[in-house]
Design a protein that fits this description.
This protein is of the alpha+beta class. It is about 15% helix and about 40% strand. The chain has one domain (about 5-255). The strands form two sheets. Strands 2, 3, 4, 5, 6, 7, 8, 9, 10, 12, 13, 14, 15 and 16 form a 14-stranded mixed β-sheet that branches. A two-stranded parallel ribbon has the order 1-11. It is globular.
Length: about 270
C-alpha cells in the first residue's frame, strides 16, 4: 500500500520527507500493525489510573552507558486462554541482546519472527542468520534514535513518551529502579495503562531498530523501542481490561560477550 494512503488511514500528516524518513514512517506503521505487545486485539479495555501516581521531586542521575549482555523475559497474565495462546504464539519468550559501541546482536527464543540478527553500526549493515540453513541474509533497518526535526515534530509521541513519576521503586536485575507511568506514547493503546521501571545507575545505548530482510521482520524489544532514553528501562508493563503484559530484564552482564557474538560464521552463505 502506498505510504501516503497508509498515513491517511492512520490519521498521520503527509509531510515532505526524505526516502529514509519515509521508510521510518513505514516501519512505525508496520510495527503498529504487527507488534503483539502494542496492538493485538486483546489490547482493548478502559484506561485506569492510580491515585498514588504523582509527580515527585526531580533527581539528577549520573548514569553510565551499559555495554554487555541483556536478557528480556516476556510474560502475560490473563484469564482468557485464547489471548494467552495468541501471545505465546506471536511473542518471543526470551530476547538476548549483546551491545557494544559499534555492534548489536539480538537473538529471540519463541514467537514467530525467529529473530537472530547482527547490526554492524559503522558499516550500517544488518544480517539475519538462518541457523538451520546456515545462510546470512543482508537486510535493511530503520534507526529511530536520531530522527530529523520534521519527522520528530510530525510524530512526537513515537520518539519520546510522556511519563509521570510515582513513589514506587524496585530492585530489578540487581539495579534500583524508579517506577513511572506512561501518560502519552505513540506505541501504547489509549485504552491501556503502561508503566516503566528505570534504572538509577545505567543507560542502554540507543537501540531503536526495526529490521527487515527477505525472510522476516524483527523489532527490538518494546522497552528499547518506545523512545525513553534517560535511563535503562528494566521493566515494562502494559495493563488492559483483559490482561497484563510484562517485559522485564532478568539478567545483566556488563562487558560480557560470548566469543564471536558479532561475527557471521565463516561457513554461512551470504545472500
Amino acid at each position: 500500500m502506498p505510504l501516503n494512503r497508509l498515513l491517511r488511514l492512520n490519521n498521520f500528516p503527509s509531510p515532505s520527507l526524505s526516502l529514509q524518513e519515509m521508510k521510518q514512517f513505514t516501519s512505525i506503521i508496520r510495527l503498529l500493525t504487527i507488534a503483539p505487545l502494542f496492538v493485538m486485539a486483546m489490547s482493548c479495555g478502559n484506561k485506569s489510573s492510580n491515585n498514588h501516581d504523582q509527580t515527585t521531586k526531580e533527581v539528577t542521575y549520573n548514569r553510565s552507558i551499559f555495554f554487555g549482555e541483556i536478557i528480556y523475559h516476556s510474560t502475560i497474565e490473563t484469564a482468557d486462554s485464547n489471548v494467552a495462546v495468541a501471545f505465546k504464539t506471536l511473542s518471543p519468550t526470551l530476547v538476548h541482546i549483546y551491545v557494544d559501541s559499534n555492534n548489536f546482536r539480538l537473538i529471540e527464543t519463541g514467537g514467530l519472527s525467529h529473530g537472530n540478527v547482527i547490526i554492524f553500526k559503522d558499516a550500517k549493515e544488518v544480517w539475519q542468520l538462518d541457523t538451520t540453513k546456515k545462510i546470512a541474509h543482508l537486510g535493511e533497518y530503520s534507526d529511530f534514535a536520531d530522527p530529523s526535526s520534521a519527522l520528530k515534530n510530525t510524530m512526537p509521541d513515537h520518539y519520546a513518551p510522556t511519563v509521570v513519576a510515582t513513589n514506587d521503586s524496585a530492585v530489578i536485575a540487581g539495579h534500583t529502579c524508579d517506577k513511572f507511568r506512561i501518560t502519552r506514547s505513540g506505541f501504547i493503546p489509549q485504552a491501556d495503562t503502561a508503566y516503566i521501571w528505570v534504572s538509577r545507575d545505567i543507560k542502554f545505548p540507543s537501540s531503536r531498530f526495526d529490521i527487515q530482510t527477505e525472510i522476516n521482520r524483527v523489532a527490538v524489544p518494546a522497552p528499547l523501542y518506545i523512545g525513553y532514553e534517560e535511563g535503562a528501562i528494566l521493566k515494562f508493563e502494559v495493563r488492559s481490561k483483559t490482561n497484563i503484559r510484562t517485559m522485564e530484564v532478568i539478567s545483566l552482564k556488563e562487558n560480557s560477550f560470548p566469543q564471536d557474538i558479532f561475527v557471521i560464521p565463516s561457513d554461512y552463505q551470504k545472500k
